[in-house]
């Protein structure tokens, strides 16, 4: 695999991850640095299949894994077919919905398919996909508690961030087992693959640390934990929330155009960070693109949107999304714009058009936006919720604008 270089010297992958802003916390960092300097190691990240698609929250750990593999280390992609049957209480104020084995199996298939874009499954350090259902579902509970549970202090566990938010509302014993099972995953991968490093989002710090600690207690061997920054807005909210919900990596749940537009409209203060975390662009180029504001930063946003969409959906769909955006915001072919076909007539109200086109959730929301002056048909502002299509055009298709970010070609059937 290609080695990352700086001034013609092969650098430690920790330096790469730090320079790009990934690392939030580590443990025994100096020992880990020496280990990564001395040899290539197996490492893992866990993904619980709680939905039928990965979402943008998974993206940073995925990119970190890709950087690790490019530096010669071997990724183990752990799919939580077993832990998903319990549910991770981290960052939750309520219990996750219980899923059947059939739903979990469907979700796993979707995850595995999406993972193919990010990792190489060939070569000396080929990625391997493993499923913790293979060992968790056949455990003897008494043996597990005697052999593994004895290594955990309940008092210490209750201080972990992953449990704190649940204690006031109630944490059931099922969820309390989650930390032990995730730690056991690390132990199994250590024994089977020699895996001594677990990575994950910073909200997983307590769980990951528990696994490293279990290996040190149970095997008397070194093990390491590393977590990554979460993708957040300037006010501390998680990035990746859209009007329709989560920003999914599945084109059927979030279209490539919607995905592209999300990053095209990222706030100015986050462009540099997103380019470093979410793309493979060289750091010098990123600094050059984001050094100034104005048109240059606007170009950086377009580059960010294209690069991330290309990684997730491929170059063909990224190019198509780019063309759609150019058409929607001027300077491009209107037929390339994202379009929607609706049932209607010249007498259909603009309120109904907004709902049928899927740009608002309800008629009341449509009326509010119209009242605020946020809707245009072509270049003409909609002044009243009583206006209909015939007040603006006699054509069977037109351009609908909602605010500054939604521009769509509406076709009347």
Protein described:
The longest helix is centred in the last third of the chain and has 20 residues. The chain has 413 residues and is an alpha/beta fold. The N terminus is likely disordered. The N and C termini lie far apart (53 Å). It has 18 helices and 15 strands. The strands form four sheets. Strands 3-8-7-4-5-6 form a six-stranded mixed β-sheet, with helices on both faces. Strands 11-15-14-12-13 form a five-stranded mixed β-sheet. The chain folds into three domains: 224 residues, 3-Layer(aba) Sandwich (Rossmann fold); 93 residues, Tyrosyl-Transfer RNA Synthetase (Orthogonal Bundle), CATH 1.10.240.10; 74 residues, RNA-binding S4 domain (Structural Genomics Hypothetical 15.5 Kd Protein In mrcA-pckA Intergenic Region, Chain A). Helices cover 42% and strands 15% of the residues.
State the main characteristics.
Rossmann fold; Tyrosyl-Transfer RNA Synthetase; Structural Genomics Hypothetical 15.5 Kd Protein In mrcA-pckA Intergenic Region, Chain A; five-stranded mixed sheet; 18 helices; disordered N terminus
């Amino acid at each position: 695999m290609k080695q990352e270089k700086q001034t013609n010297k092969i650098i430690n992958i920790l330096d790469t991850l730090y320079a790009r802003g990934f690392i939030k916390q580590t443990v025994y960092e100096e020992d880990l640095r020496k280990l990564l300097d001395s040899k290539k190691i197996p490492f893992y990240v866990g993904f619980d299949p709680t939905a039928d698609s990965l979402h943008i929250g998974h993206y940073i750990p995925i990119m970190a894994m890709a950087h690790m593999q490019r530096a010669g280390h071997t990724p183990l992609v752990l799919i939580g077919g077993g832990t998903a049957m319990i549910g991770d209480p981290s960052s939750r104020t309520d219990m996750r919905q219980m899923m059947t084995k059939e739903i979990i199996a469907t979700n796993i298939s979707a995850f595995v398919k999406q993972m193919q874009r990010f990792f190489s499954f060939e070569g000396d350090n080929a990625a391997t996909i493993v499923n913790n259902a293979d060992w968790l579902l056949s455990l003897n509970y008494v043996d597990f508690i005697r052999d593994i549970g004895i290594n955990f202090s309940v008092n210490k566990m209750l201080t972990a961030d992953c449990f704190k938010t649940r204690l006031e509302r109630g944490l059931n014993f099922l969820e309390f087992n989650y930390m032990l099972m995730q730690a056991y995953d690390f132990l199994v991968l250590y024994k089977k693959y020699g895996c001594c490093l677990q990575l994950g989002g910073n909200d997983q710090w307590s769980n990951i640390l528990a696994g490293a600690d279990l290996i040190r207690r149970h095997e008397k061997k070194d093990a390491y934990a590393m977590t990554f920054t979460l993708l957040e807005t300037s006010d501390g909210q998680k990035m990746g929330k859209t009007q329709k919900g989560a920003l999914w990596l599945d084109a059927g749940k979030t279209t490539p155009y919607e995905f592209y537009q999300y990053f095209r409209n990222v706030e100015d203060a986050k462009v540099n960070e997103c380019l470093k975390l979410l793309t493979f662009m060289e750091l010098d180029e990123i600094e050059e693109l984001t050094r100034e504001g104005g048109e240059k930063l606007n170009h950086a946003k377009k580059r960010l949107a294209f690069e991330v969409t290309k990684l997730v959906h491929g170059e063909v769909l990224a190019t198509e999304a780019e063309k759609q955006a150019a058409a929607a915001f001027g300077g491009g072919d209107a037929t390339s714009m994202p379009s929607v076909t609706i049932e209607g007539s010249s007498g259909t109200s603009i309120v109904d058009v907004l709902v049928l086109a899927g740009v608002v959730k309800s008629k009341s929301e449509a009326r509010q936006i119209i009242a605020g002056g946020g809707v245009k048909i072509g270049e003409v502002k909609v002044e009243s919720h009583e206006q209909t299509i015939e007040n603006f055009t006699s054509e069977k298709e037109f351009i609908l604008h909602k605010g500054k970010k939604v521009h769509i070609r509406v076709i009347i059937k």
